[in-house]
Amino acid sequence: MAVVTKAEAPPPPKPGRRRLLYRLQVMRHDPTAALGLILVVVLGYLVVAPLVAVLSDAARLQYGDEIHAGQRPGEWTGYYLWRVFRSQISGLLFWEPLLNTLVVAVGTTLFALVVGGGMAWLVTRTNVPGRKWLAGALVVPYMLPSWTFSLAWLTLFKNERAAGQVGILQSVGVRTPDWLAYGPLPIIVTLGLHYYPFVLLLVGNALRRIDAQLEDSARILGAPRRTVVRRIVIPLMLPALSSAVLLVIGRVLGTFGTPYVLGLPSDYRVLSTGLFQSIRDRSTGVASVIAMVIVAIGVLIVLTDTRMMREHRRFVTVGGKGAMDRLSDLRRLRWPAFALGVVVFVVSVLVPVLTLLLSTVTRTPLDLSTFTLDYWFAESLPGAVGFPHGVFRGSELWAAAWNSLRIVGLASIVCAVLGLLIGYVVVRGTAPRVAAFLRQVSFLPYLIPGIAFAAASLSLFAVARGPIPALYGTTFLLILVMAVTHLPYSSRSGIAAMTQLGREPEEAAQIAGASWWQRMRRIVFPIQKGALVTGIILPFVSGLKELSIVIMLTTTGTQLLTTLSIGLVDYGYTQLANAVVLVIALVSFTMTYLTQRLTKSSLASGLGG
Amino acid sequence: MPDITLRGIAKSYGGDDYAVKNLDLVVPDGAFMCLLGPSGCGKTTTLRMIAGLEQPTAGTIAVGDRVLDSVEHGRYVPPEKRGMGLVFQNYALWPHLSIRENVEFGLRMRKVPGPERRARAEEALRMVHVDAAMDRYPSQLSGGQQQRVALARMLAINPEVLLLDEPLSNLDAQLRLEMRAELKRIHEESGATIVFVTHDQLEALTMATDIAVMRSGELQQLAAPMAMYDRPANRFVAEFVGSPPMAIVDVGPEPGGLAGSLLRHVAARADCAPAAVGVRPEALRFGPPPAGAWHEEATVEAVLPAGSSWTVRLRVLDTDLYAVSYTPVEAAPGDTITCWTERMHLFDADGARIAAWDEAGVAA
């Protein structure tokens, strides 16, 4: 028979120490806590430490600046702040690039908004012919590296001002003025062509999810169609629109390739290329200040976005039945609308790709009598000293491809495993503070444009610190930085996957007698196999076309496909650069396409480049 | 096989909020013990602490002489070494393993050789009648089948202690009835000590050999089902166990109406001053009262037939009461009938039960 026994107080001799002993016993059998601590240290070192290092670099005098600043190296100084913000060259160093960045960001956003928003409406809310095809085709520009477009632009419009072969227009006798060939206009157009799919996806998703009943109600109450759009649809779209705007601005802020290719010939500098220049010039202090400014703007943008999203959550528009498929009948405008969609596709995909392709198979632009496959296959190319053969010859392309594959692949694996482990600790762990730290810090790189984060990592890892040797120029550093910059996505999906799984399946295995390793090996990782594969593929696809992050970290020994192509641009070998970027575009497009088919993941929720 | 002993068990998730407060409990060997209480009362936490999935902030958990947790002596045995079985509320079958592999998993961990492993898994699955679905995957089974597989998975390792966390709550009514009988049979066949968590008092009454009622992390009463039903330790248990619940009337400073009527009846026969008086619905009868029974005129407000029983809502003086009758009730709403009872439960000002008063006078 059951009885309630009153505890006859057992003598607890040293309660404090015994309790600790108990906790240690528990920890010994459950490595989650230890794993959590390891992850805290790793993330602290990889994410937080670079930011601290860049702050310290900005505020302490660097070697070589003693004479200008009148201080000793290592001393605290306001010299770099002064130099960047107030000195005579601050206009050149900072204010002008800042202004240019703003111009480019606003211009690109408007461009992307008009094209992307219009196309989104067309493919989600109208009966335009070939909707499905358009919806897929119009996203393609986002699968190509963003500076593909800038190389195509140069191939079309370049004049004699910059090194290398002139563009197609110039060669047939049309003079292209500098403002058309280089600077803000081409940068805005080419970036806009790359980023409009981003707006299309975000706005299209929102349009699709608006409950048609909301519109119907307004119609029944007597509102004419125009009023419905103005008073109902557009207000409901505001969250998606503001989100798209802020994210495009954030991306443009950190983008490097396009402003580098199109801005440099006319000395048009934005913050990212200015940062790159400062690092090239070894002015670490100035570079650190600029990096901090970029970080600050990036943080501001994302915080504004989260803030606005939170406010907008008051009206959730996730529709039930009756959502979608209430299409406007375009009537006579159906085919013109379709033609417009096709034009956008042609301009944003076919023209750039064909231009690049054509340029690589002719010696003189547009002159088919000079058709040649030399730029692809020739054993030797006279005149190209730095790259004296077709791209498929020699070892450069293959070495760069192998580097890309190896480095991006390893980074993706590291990233996915880290993400899953973070998810495991966050869901499984018993220390709420550790979970909160991991959740927030792993998301931190999202706030920071890649190029600024690369600069910060350079601050930390360029020199030996304590037991860690200088990592500059090593593949190891590239892998680390790439993995960390993609961590926000992988940790989010890791946390989501683990939350969805819950802790019970693992606990059931524990009850059944499985040790921690057995549980990981037989239960947790096998169940999460799908999440792990997605977690590897997505960073891999976006990492392959990544330039902003790697441009500062690669050396001649660690050339990637992307940096190889930019290097060829620097040499003025237009055809070769175009050939390499075509290779990247093809690989990147194929992989993205296959990934979407295989994992059914949506690009909208995916990654940026 | 040994008893499970919980001594001075407390659990807090940081701060002064205790999920379980100083719990002392012995689950006797071979018992079918039910931890019963409303959600948030600490019953699941207690179960998980016995399993080792949560660690107490203070106290000792032992099975026989084997100490599994002792915060004060720094001893801890991890769940995988406790050799217990635990069936989760949502079953927690491993989606990537077939039913057979799910059931064999525990045996594999115990390094049981292949042929024996297969035989024992099949036996466990036969015991719960899902041996036909052995090579399917969990997602291909119905909820009831998954529940049985979760049970078989734990039965296969032949545990001395089997813990069940609301295993019937996700089943439909028909299956639930079936599984109750099934669990009772399995308890008898396997001889395991079972600790079972539920918020359903009917489940507890029908299956358990012992019930522990918990509330806000504290043990309210530990007793055999019918003993608990007949002699609830306090108002909380009295109202929680039984459906419809016991009607409890507070005796104010100037008792009038129904309270006054009940109190006068008790006071005339016993030397005690209860603060509240309770009557179970089925103890309330209709018709001419026997000698010595409390009785009062009542107005019928509604009659709710339920096939085998009739629930009647009555207005007695100033209070609404429910009565349950197992013979047909021939009254219509608005009729006046006489209701009577020979059994009341008396509670003191703190809610503790003083005594039951019945026709024989005041009894324990």
CATH architecture name of the domain at 78-372 in chain A: Orthogonal Bundle
> What is the approximate shape of chain A?
globular
Query: What value does the average pLDDT of chain B take?
Result: 89
CATH superfamily of the largest domain in chain B: P-loop containing nucleotide triphosphate hydrolases
Structural class of chain A: mainly alpha
Number of strands of chain B: 21
Q: Helix share of residues of chain B?
A: 25-40%
Per CATH, which architecture of the largest domain in chain B? 3-Layer(aba) Sandwich
Main pleated-sheet profile of chain B: 6 strands, mixed
Q: Would you list the SSEs of chain B in sequence order as H and E?
A: EEEHEEEEHHHEHEHEEHHEHEEEEEEEEE
Which helices and strands appear, and what pairs or packs with what?
The complex is a heterodimer of chains A (609) and B (364).
Chain A: H1 15-29, H2 32-59, H3 66-69, H4 79-85, H5 90-125, H6 131-137, H7 140-143, H8 148-157, H9 168-171, H10 178-181, H11 184-209, H12 212-220, H13 225-254, H14 257-263, H15 271-280, H16 284-312, H17 334-360, H18 374-377, H19 396-428, H20 432-443, H21 450-461, H22 475-485, H23 487-501, H24 504-511, H25 516-527, H26 529-544, H27 561-571, H28 574-599
Helix pairs in contact in A: 2-16, 2-19, 2-20, 2-21, 4-5, 4-16, 5-6, 5-11, 5-13, 5-15, 8-14, 8-17, 8-28, 11-13, 11-14, 12-13, 13-16, 15-16, 16-21, 17-28, 19-20, 19-22, 19-23, 19-26, 23-26, 24-25, 26-28, 27-28
Chain B: E1 4-12, E2 18-27, E3 32-36, H1 43-51, E4 58-63, E5 66-70, E6 75-76, E7 85-87, H2 99-109, H3 114-127, H4 143-155, E8 161-165, H5 173-190, E9 193-198, H6 201-207, E10 210-215, E11 218-223, H7 225-230, H8 235-240, E12 247-250, H9 257-267, E13 276-279, E14 285-286, E15 294-305, E16 310-316, E17 319-325, E18 336-341, E19 343-347, E20 353-358, E21 361-363
Parallel strand pairs in B: 3-9, 3-10, 7-8, 8-9
Antiparallel strand pairs in B: 1-2, 1-4, 4-5, 5-6, 10-11, 12-13, 13-19, 14-18, 15-16, 15-18, 16-17, 19-20, 20-21
Helix pairs in contact in B: 2-3, 2-4, 3-4
